[in-house]
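B., you asked whether I could sanity-check this one before it goes into the benchmark set. Here's the sequence:
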Amino acid sequence: MRNLCRTALLLVMLLPAVLLAGCGGGSGLQDGYYTAQAQEFSHGWKEFVTIMVKGGEIVSVEYNAENASGFIKSWDNAYMQTMLHSNGTYPNEYTRYYARQFQEDQNADSIDALTGASSSHSSFQLLSEAVLEQARQGDSSVRVVDTSKE
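And here's what the prediction gave me:
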């Protein structure tokens, strides 16, 4: 009987620790900012993903691209109009869509492709996997990724 009481007491004491470990505390992500950037320009743009990890969770995601002069793709109104008419989406829409899914799911594998932005989806997944690996290692250097391997 005495051993049963000790076992029950031990279980009651360990249960909160086990439950907390399953609620994000075991993500393995280290707090900080992490960036992965495409190795090469594609159609004049170099994509990048930056995340902020706080408390072991991704709390902020930025996905975009820049041209050689540093101009951000989602700010290019002429490009937006052209892409919207030809593909049915545009950078300011799909970059936010992918970033939101990544932040909500905390996982690069579960992100659905948006029609009209499937090549960006492939790049985004590769870049997201790279920043997750950086966050696990606590490596805040900019990771360069070959996104042509789609």
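One thing to flag: The helical segments are 2-25, 77-87, 91-105, 118-137. Otherwise nothing jumped out at me.
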